[in-house]
Hints:
Layout: E1 2-7, H1 19-26, E2 31-36, E3 49-50, E4 60-61, H2 63-74, E5 83-93, H3 96-102, E6 107-111, H4 121-126, E7 132-136, H5 145-157, H6 167-171, E8 194-195, E9 198-199, H7 209-227, H8 229-234, H9 242-246
The structure holds the ligand COC(=O)COc1cccc(COC(=O)c2cn[nH]c2)c1.
Amino acid sequence: MRIDIITIFPDYFTPLDLSLIGKARRSGLIDVRLHDLRRWTYDRHHTVDDTPYGGGPGMVMKPEPWGEALDEITADADAGTPRLILPTPSGLPFTQQDAVRLAKEPWLIFACGRYEGIDARVAVDAAQRMPVEELSIGDYVLNGGEVATLVIVEAISRLLPGVLGNVESITQDSFAPGTMDNLVEGPVYTKPPVWRGHEVPPILLSGHHAAIDRWRRDEALRKTARNRPDLIRRLDPESLDKRDREV
Ligand SMILES: COC(=O)COc1cccc(COC(=O)c2cn[nH]c2)c1
């Protein structure tokens, strides 16, 4: 997968050199390219923003640098058609299902907005040449799209074959399509069996795998009901067995 990131703060992305994603980049699994938006400005101050039409506080990111950056980056036609992702508080909620979907894409471009946002015509103009998605990682406001891009890139990259050593763990993740659809994971434990007087639930040491799976699903249902009643309402009743309904 190729990932291009356009930002005025390329240094925000040094975490992508670390850990599993860094390893995946070095092994060629993921090709991450950083672009400083100011490369497409020509005035002395490398201006990327201006006052909002219609008045109001703050600044808006000018369209010209974005247009030229996207033209140059997407001119590389041999990489197929990219999908442009715009992290923004006003976007569609980004979910694990989106991570699974976007992990299948060959080429993603992330546009990191700042200030009050990017001139709306940038997304309109780009949509004439490629799919464009405005995505929100949550109902709060950051100073820019860089942190949201790191979140989305990590959620996607960890699903790419070969990035995580243990593929099994993906299927047990919270929200994982299939068994964990609309469920969050329950509690997990490791050695020692007793720690500061706290015991590991005996079922987990029993070796009865069917009973352990049942206990884990019960705990996932309980935790989802406690922390995410909104997800419980979305659970497909067909996906619940008799025991589920008793939990
Ligand atoms: C069309 O896109 C834009 O204009 C993007 O503009 C902005 C403006 C301010 C902040 C951000 C960063 O995203 C978030 O804060 C965010 C994403 N998810 N939850 C919070 C982006």
